[in-house]
Amino acid sequence: MSTPMEVVVSADSSGQLWNCAVFDLHSGTNLLSYRGGNSSSRSLTLLNGEYILGAQLGKNFINVWEVQRKDQLQQKIVCPGIVTCLTTSPDGLYVLAGIADAIYLWEVSTGNLLAILNRHYQDLTCLRFTDDSSHFISGGKDNLALIWSLVSVVQLDSSHTPEPRHVLSRHSLPVTDIHCGLMGAQARVATASLDQTVKLWEISSGELLLSVLFDVSIMSVTLDPCEYFLFCGGSDGTIYQVSLCSPSLSRDKTFQSDSEGNQVFKGHRNLVTCLSVSMDGTLLLSGSHDETVRLWDVQSKQSIRTINHKGPVTNACIMLAPANMFLPESRPAAPLPRFSRHLNPTEQGDSTATAGMCLRVGTNAQDPEETYLEKADRLHSLMCAVTDKSVFGDGENTKVRVSELEEEVKTLKKINKDLYDFSSQLLIKPS
C-alpha cells in the first residue's frame, strides 16, 4: 500500500476462524487474519507497527505475530500469570501487562522486566498510554484508576517504590474501560465503570472535569479525535453519545437525549465491549457480546455495516494500517528478544541474550535527594541563563541591546495605534 489507510482490527473469544482479523474500513472486506488461540478483552495491541500482540484468553502467555505474516504465529511471550489487559507505548519502546493486581513493564529492546507495580488492590481491567508515551493509566476492579509517569517508574532507584502521579478514586464499582485523548501529559482521560457513570479527568492535575450518570452499567468508552463527543457503550447494547460542547454542560449530569448532541445508537443486543472512532470523526466502530462488530455513521446514528463473528467480540478498533502490513516480503527491523519474567534476570537464571545496550538514569547519576522534576527545572534554568548570555552578552552590550528593543517596541505600538485609528474611521464612516 502506497498511502496509509484506516483498517478495522477485531477479535472474538471463540478463535474458531482466526485469533484476530483485519478488515477494510469502508468495504468490510477481510484483508488479513492471524491464526492461533484467542485474545482476551483489552489485550490486542500493535507494537511499533511491526508486531501484533494478543494475550491468550485464560492463559499465562502473549501471542506475537509479524504484521505482514498473517498465518504464522511467530512467538509466545511467557508471563508470570494470566494477562488480563495489555498495551504498548506509541513509541514502541515498552510493553505493559496487567497480571492479577500487578502491572508489569518490559523494555522491548532488551526484553528486561523493568518494574512490577503493586498499587492496585484487585485485578487490573485496562491499561492505556498517552499518545506521547510519557504517562500511562491503569484501571482495576478496586474502583481505582491510577495515572503513572513513565519516567518515575523506569528510574533505577531501588530505595524508592514508584507511586502513581494521581489516584482517581471517584468510582464506586470496578473500572471497565479507559480512553486517553491526545496532547500527551495535557490530555484528558475518560473512565467507565459498573457504577453507571463515565468520568472525564485532566491528566496533569488529576482533576475531575465531568461525571455523566446513565441508566445502565458502562462497559466501554471513547472520544472522537476532536473531543467534541464522548461515546459510551452500555451493558444493554445501547451506545450513548454525550456532547462535550453543550453551553449548559455542568460537571455532574444525568444523560438525556436532546437536540444538543446527546443521542443514542441502537442495534446491539448485548453489552458493548469496545468502541473506536475514525480519524475524521464520522464513523464509530463497536464490538459486542452479541457476536457482531458494527460500523455506524455518527451524524445519522445508523448502522451502515455489520461484521459477524463466531463468539463474543473481545477487541475491535480502527487504526492506521502499518506500511508493511500488506508487503509479504518485508521483515521487522529487529527481532523481539526473549521477555524476562523476573526483575533481576541474571540472578534468577532468566538472562536474555541481546546485542543492544540499554542506558537509563541510575542512582549515582543524580543527587539522591533531587527528584526528576526538580532536576528538569534546574536544567531548564541553566539553559535559559546560557541562552540569555549568548544572545545578549554581558554589561554594556546588554544595555545597548535592551535600548534597541525598547525603541522597536515603541515603533510597533505606534504602528498598531495608527492601524486601529484607521480601521475605526472606516467602520464609523457614513456609507
Name the descriptors:
mainly beta; 14% helix; four-stranded antiparallel sheet; globular; 431 residues
Give the strand order of the largest sheet, numbering strands 1, 2, ... along the chain.
Answer: 16-17-18-19-23
Beta-strand content: 35-45%
Mean pLDDT: 86
CA gyration radius, whole angstroms: 26 Å
Category from helices, strands and their pairing: mainly beta
**Residue windows where pLDDT falls under 50 for at least 5 positions:** 351-359, 361-368
Number of helices: 3
Termini Cα gap: 59 Å
Largest sheet: 5 strands, mixed
Total number of strands: 29
Fraction of residues in H or I helices: 10-25%
Short summary:
With 431 residues, the chain is mostly beta strands. 14% of the residues lie in helices and 38% in strands.
Description:
The protein has 431 residues and is mainly β. It has three helices and 29 strands. The protein has a five-stranded mixed sheet, with no helix packed on it. It is globular. The N and C termini lie far apart (59 Å). The model is unreliable at 351-359 and 361-368 (pLDDT under 50).
Set down the secondary structure blueprint:
Layout: E1 6-12, E2 20-24, E3 30-34, E4 39-47, E5 51-56, E6 61-66, E7 75-78, E8 83-88, E9 94-99, E10 102-107, E11 113-117, E12 124-129, E13 135-140, E14 145-149, H1 150-154, E15 166-168, E16 175-180, E17 188-193, E18 197-202, E19 208-213, E20 218-223, E21 229-234, E22 239-243, E23 252-254, E24 263-265, E25 272-277, E26 283-288, E27 292-297, E28 302-308, E29 313-320, H2 372-392, H3 396-428
Parallel strand pairs: 19-23
Antiparallel strand pairs: 1-2, 1-29, 2-3, 4-5, 5-6, 6-7, 8-9, 9-10, 10-11, 12-13, 13-14, 14-15, 16-17, 17-18, 18-19, 20-21, 21-22, 22-24, 25-26, 26-27, 27-28
